[in-house]
Amino acid sequence: MNAKRLIFPGVGAFAAAMDVLNKKEMAEVLCAYIKQDRPFLGICLGLQLLFESSEENGPVKGLGLIPGVVGRFDSSNGFRVPHIGWNALQITKDSQILDDIGSRHVYFVHSYRAMPSDDNRDWISSTCNYGENFIASVRRGNIHAVQFHPEKSGDVGLSILRRFLDPKCEITKKPPVHRKASKLAKRVIACLDVRTNDKGDLVVTKGDQYNVREHTKENEVRNLGKPVDLAGQYYLDGADEVSFLNITGFRDFPLGDLPMLQVLRYTSENVFVPSTVGGGIRDFTDGTGRYYSSLEVASEYFRSGADKVSIGSDAVYAAEEYSKTGVKTGKSSLEQISKVYGNQAVVVSIDPRRVYLKDPDDVEFKAVRVRNPGPNGEEYAWYQCTVNGGREGRPIGAYELAKAVEDLGAGEILLNCIDCDGQGKGFDIDLIKLISDAVSIPVIASSGAGAVEHFSEVFFETNTSAALAAGIFHRKEVAIQSVKEHLLKAGIEIRM
Ligand code: 1PR
After folding, report:
1. Alphabetically, which GO biological process terms does the record hold (predicted)?
2. How far is the CA of 65 from the centre of ligand 1 (A)?
3. Could you tell me if 184 and 85 are in contact, meaning their C-beta atoms sit under 8 angstroms apart?
């Protein structure tokens, strides 16, 4: 109650948050603070909790300050849920903290949303269109709340925080902007494969078809720069997201890997777009016999600044088991982490390898007709999932895995392709189409980008939500800005 300004950044599930607020007797205090019209900014769940109730694992009662029920997005109309990515807003009234936004995009990541109604109309300061118009922000007097994440919305997001924190900004009010609703922007993601080199330094590396060693006598790990510096550079260059993959995480215990946690901490000080970290997320018993659950590993990554974690090998084992039994045990890393942090915080990274076939009925897994026939003229292929950085093929296809992990709680799929990795010949359109048509969660296309045209190709030919590249950005062959300018010219909505 003594705070001059209060920021309430909600992360996680509605019921769990309300439980804590009630137990700690914070709900009452928050309501009193808000009713006194003291400066308040709620973010994401911090907006939703102001409403009467939520359907998330509910109905669950909220703080009840704004009329309305928070409900789940409807995925039956073809829109992917969670809503992850960059959207522009329809500003409906003078919102003060949104004055610098104009037509620029802000970052959303959520599966639940509040809807406009006659009862809450006077609260709404902006809406956003994602299959339907939902409430993007509210304002009444000094009370503000936003469904998107200003802290992850680049410089436009920082200006929102600055305007909230610095009351002097109030004097430069601009009239509200009325614009046509926009679509969800396609994302361009920079990926940093990170590992310790032979000298013990944590470096960004990149290989061909998952081999990251130089083709020299010394056979060293290819060193393409320092992770924090590169991530900072990519943020300034316009990356919509940055991914770190700790590529030897499958054999080194990540919580023993303090440099990786430092990388996340330093990165989050300067990079104001979402970051994902993957590698080694699984249950683990260390040399002293101490057991760490995958949830503890993920929690440490989140606490160090990651917005999402990505699970590779462990998700393959979970999907194999689930495909066999049809039973959700609730014990897999995927299920445990998504239950606590929400589906939107869990990405599954798939590392498939093409296996050519003469006849699609030759395997029990989903096969597709491929654009470029195999070495012996084979017209079909299935995509075999691998674990341990592509070292071991498993008895499950990418299609079956994608469907299973969606069921188990993944919020997004990072779809690599070992055959295309580092080749610069373009994304595997057959694979990306297969997977993005099979699931209703967002898919990130990865592996093979070599030119700006490869990005427009993957967005025109598939339903992918984002495209990720590594090598061309690290080797400075193509700048992220050039990719975005190309996409803009091609008529694809992106965040500039
Ligand atoms: O299995 O949970 O420990 O996770 C390990 C993670 O590390 C997985 O996400 C796996 O994809 C990744 N990984 C493991 N080994 C390698 C390797 O390269 N030796 N990197 C590796 C995978 C693939 C992409 C790459 C794109 C784009 N890297 O992320 O960045 O292919 O590259 P390009 O644009 O240069 O073609 P776990």
Report:
1. L-histidine biosynthetic process
2. 46
3. yes
Positions annotated as catalytic residues are: 44, 149, 151, 193, 351
Residues 6+ apart with CB under 8 A from 114: 47, 48, 51, 66, 68, 69, 70, 71, 120, 134, 135, 147
Distance between Cα 203 and ligand 1 center (Å): 14
Ligand 1 binding pocket includes 413 (Cβ within 6 Å): no
Q: What is the pLDDT of residues 222-280, one digit of tens each?
A: 777 789 999 999 999 999 999 999 888 766 666 666 678 889 999 999 999 999 999 98
Atom of ligand 1 nearest to the CA of 245: 7
Q: How far is the CA of 452 from the centre of ligand 1 (A)?
A: 21
Residue 426 assigned to a binding site: no
For Cα atoms 472, 473, 474, give the angle at the middle one, nearest 5 degrees.
95
- Rounded to 10 deg, the angle between the 333-341 and 313-325 helix axes is 100
Omega of the bond leading into 82 within 30 degrees of 0 (cis): yes
Q: Is any atom of ligand 1 closer than 6 Å to the C-beta of 278?
A: yes
Distance of CA 304 from the midpoint of ligand 1 (Å): 21
Query: Strand 133-140 and strand 124-129: pairing?
Result: antiparallel
Full DSSP string of 25-44: THHHHHHHHHHTT--EEEEE
282 and 246 in contact (C-beta within 8 Å)?
no
Q: Residue 387 and residue 404: Cα distance in Å, rounded?
A: 16
Comparing CA positions, the residue from 46, 89, 17 lying closest to residue 341 is 17
Residue 207 annotated as binding?
A: no
Report the SS3 class of residue 193: strand
Beta-carbon contacts of 69 under 8 Å, excluding residues fewer than 6 positions away, are 51, 52, 53, 54, 55, 59, 114
The Cα-based distances of 124 to 23, 90, 179 in angstroms read 30, 10, 16
469 lines ligand 1 (CB under 6 A): yes
Over residues 381-409, the mean pLDDT reads 97
Cβ atoms of residues 205 and 223 within 8 Å: yes
Ligand 1 pocket check for 450: Cβ under 6 Å:
no
Distances (CA, A) of 491 to 456, 484, 488, 494: 9, 11, 5, 9
The answer to whether 203 and 458 have CB atoms below 8 angstroms apart is no
**Three-class secondary structure of residue 184 per DSSP:** coil
The answer to whether the CB of 349 is under 6 A from ligand 1 is yes
The 10s digit of each residue's pLDDT in 445-483 is 999 999 999 999 999 999 999 999 999 999 999 999 999
- From 205, 221, 230, 351, the mutation candidate for ligand 1 (largest count of ligand atoms within 8 A of CB) is 351
* Pairing of the two strands 346-350 and 308-311: parallel
List the structure tokens of 164. 């909230």
Per the structure block, which two tokens stand in for 43?
A: 């973010």
Q: What is the pTM of this model?
A: 0.94
416 is known to lie in a ligand binding site:
yes
d(CA 430, CA 112): 32
